[in-house]
Design a protein that fits this description.
single chain, alpha/beta, Rossmann fold, 2 domains, ten-stranded mixed sheet, 10 strands, 41% helix, globular
Amino acid sequence: MTQGIVIGYDGSAQSRAAAHWAAAEAARRSTGLTVLRARPWLDHAATVGDPLDPALGEPGPDELDTLAAELLKANPGLEVATQAAAGDPADALVTAAAEYELAVLGAPEHGSLVGSVGRSVAAHTDTPVVLVPDDARVPASGQPEVVVGLSAETSPAAVEFALAQAERLGGRVRAVHAWEMVPFWSAVPGWVPPNVDVDAQSAAIRDELTLATAPAAAAHPEVDLTVETVLGTPAHAVLTAAATADLLVLGRPHHRLGQLARAAVHQCQTPVALVPHR
């Protein structure tokens, strides 16, 4: 893997927002940015033997050059490269992502049930992927905040990613874990058995999670890390916390997206980083 960030661009509002987010992130990391665009028809033309004009090897050069100029203007000194690829966009981006430290793509539209290149890439690459919605909220003034969801699908890599990102932003990390009652009791909304000490259980879980995140926290002593436990569903707890954050970080198993990640990708107005287990 080389250093740098790759952004998958397709001309949509989501991918344009993702490109600007990726450029700002590349500037924070003092690394380069590659804008990649893949088009299946180039691959088809080559397969059937159609003569290809050399210019067709770089689809939309004017558009890519214009975007690169925009990104450079917003981030002076940033090294921006453009690249075209023939073939399926998801396959091309999975292949390209293996060569970079971070891949960035536009998030699917909220409520969309159709497949997306972003989800496919996030599920099949070993590189962290950030999905950026076109309506990503403008970060509030004040200290930047990164939220990381802690669950059975969270690995130390996700916590480390969140802490490193907060350090670059000069911000803090909120690690949020949701827990629920056993199914029998949770079938009665809002009711908690009288012999269950919710505060004690929350404190015990919080202590365990604080211990589990301690090694990553020790590597970033300047970052304020707060572990929170919430009685409720993971999706509601984590997405509620992420609503006011600058970035949501979630771990994911290899080659699939977990339930929480799928919910976040569809519903969150905050950029979502999906970090594969190591």
